């Protein structure tokens, strides 16, 4: 009974969104009510803790809405200035093949944004770019979410490693570096296949009857890109630690992808465009804007994100100048929601939109129109996110109860540990996925479950670093199906109400990635 209640935050959304195909605004509102009632009646959470958890979720919603607004306002500004047209012409000059464009935009550019920003920003940036290239909305959103996975363990300048493992007994620079290297070793086996899985999803679900064949011809090139990203990630993790792995790995991948795609190496001669939107018309106008000027706002985004995260005085300024953090909500110690406004990727994206107008010599009226469009888009999403995050924080704070029960996440983890025992390495990534599915954050998933993973590894005499690496990679895989990431990415693509369809497309790849991680971890434990 307790296990069913603990899993209610997973079971109810899956039932309503995926099986019954409810729009997220309705499905997540019902899910939140069900979980809250069970938390009070079965788990014994008091009214004050429930109320403070709900307010924590509402506050966290505002932080995500700022990121969503920033991603939308930048995109809409660049559409208004004509920069998106020029960016797309740049991609098309490399290849007209949508399979190649998918790897460039969703996997490599998305990994670059993940390495600099994290927190769901990549899919919000890459899905609209693919829409502008002509991808069908469902194809753009699903593949953007699947692509934002391999880089997640090192997202936001290494935050999942540096913060997610910070409470462990061995926490420290050397330990973080060793676990980071182990992550890349597992991903040499598992993450290398993500570019191919991306193309397989695209051709199977959005092709015209020859999905597997159209994917298999891309296998050699996708393996090259996967090995390039993950092989260089191993090198960078070994040399520099976890902070810059995703950024440098994606840049290395972009260089190799650009050279090989231009020359047609390992690529089929046929051009695949089956996933084009019906009645999509390529822009006839040829932009006279320079490619660097068109891309400059995104370059600014990466630079500002790096400055705010690695330059000590600038980091301190952005974290403290406008701090809307809410601590000890309703007087409940330990329930808080942080919000350093200037440090948020949403602020950086908004600033980049304003700077774009200066660099591209356009009127500030473009920004006003973009802001109006963006605010209109996120209205319904705000309600959905508030319900989702209220549920998430009630689940996470369920250890504060009057029945002396452990929290729901801990209860689930102990149940899984008892079931798997010495075969735990195969379950470890799925615990990471579960954490990200519910909380929407690889960092929070790892903070929550890494102590449990650590204790299970010790108890079963497993390699601790391999188990923790499986947790981190699994948490990245959970990004594909995380409800609030799905809601946000669907919103920027104008697909409100289609969230269940998105999860149906991303669930298989998320589970397959978890299986590959378990196999890679098992092999690695036999070697180390």
UniProtKB/TrEMBL annotation:
Highest taxon above the source species: Bacteria
Membrane topology: Multi-pass membrane protein
GO CC annotations, alphabetized: plasma membrane
Keywords: Cell membrane, Membrane, Transmembrane, Transmembrane helix, Transport
Pfam families: Lactate_perm
Cellular location(s): Cell membrane
Similarity comment text for this entry: Belongs to the lactate permease family.
First and last residue of the signal peptide: none
GO molecular function annotation: lactate transmembrane transporter activity; solute:proton symporter activity
InterPro entries: Lactate_perm (IPR003804)
Transmembrane segments: 33-55, 62-82, 102-126, 138-163, 183-206, 218-238, 244-261, 295-314, 334-359, 380-400, 510-527
Protein name: L-lactate permease
Main localisation: membrane
Functional note: Uptake of L-lactate across the membrane. Can also transport D-lactate and glycolate.
